[in-house]
Design goal:
6 helices, mainly alpha, Four Helix Bundle (Hemerythrin (Met), subunit A), about 5% strand
Length: about 160
């Protein structure tokens, strides 16, 4: 999370709401997407609620067994459409109020801290659904979140290379 925060803190205000290309997310939307990911995981740890499945149970099992270990143990991250639960709403592109840069970064830091603090309290028997990987235990979800955050850190660092130095 520290590397992601370092990159986002260095994004110039003038670029915060500029997408990389038409149809791509702005840095504000990227940060919100990562925050939403942590919020969904936190809700899962607290209640067992998960995402709507986007693949069949058999495919989710295969992805969990074959793809998830590669994701969490390497720098590779597959391109896939973000599940609806973690897709930023269009209003985030305005950058106003709760979608301002400082507010989004604070939201992400707060929810990441909550996940870190509550993970040791979560039952190891608890499972909640990931859209692509199916039922995950809290520690699996945390490893996935970490890999996901590293992926978005790299995406933003490529867009803002001076920030990443």
């Amino acid at each position: 999370m520290a590397a992601f925060t370092d990159v986002t803190n260095g994004i110039p205000d003038a670029r915060w709401l500029q997408p990389q290309a038409p149809g791509k997310w702005t840095p504000a939307e990227e940060v919100l997407h990562v925050a939403l990911s942590y919020e969904v995981a936190l809700r899962g740890m607290r209640t067992g609620a998960g995402m709507r499945a986007r693949v069949s149970p058999m495919r989710a099992r295969l992805l969990r067994w074959l793809v998830l270990p590669v994701i969490v143990n390497s720098s590779w991250f597959p391109r896939a459409k973000a599940p609806a639960e973690i897709r930023p709403p269009a209003v985030a592109a305005t950058g106003h109020g709760e979608f301002a840069a400082h507010a989004l970064c604070a939201r992400l830091e707060r929810v990441a801290r909550d996940v870190r603090d509550e993970l040791p309290l979560a039952s190891p028997d608890l499972r909640f659904r990931h859209a692509y990987f199916g039922d995950l235990a809290p520690r699996q979800a945390l490893r996935m979140l970490s890999a996901h955050t590293r992926h978005h850190t790299r995406v933003l660092a490529r867009r803002f290379p001076k920030v990443a130095e």
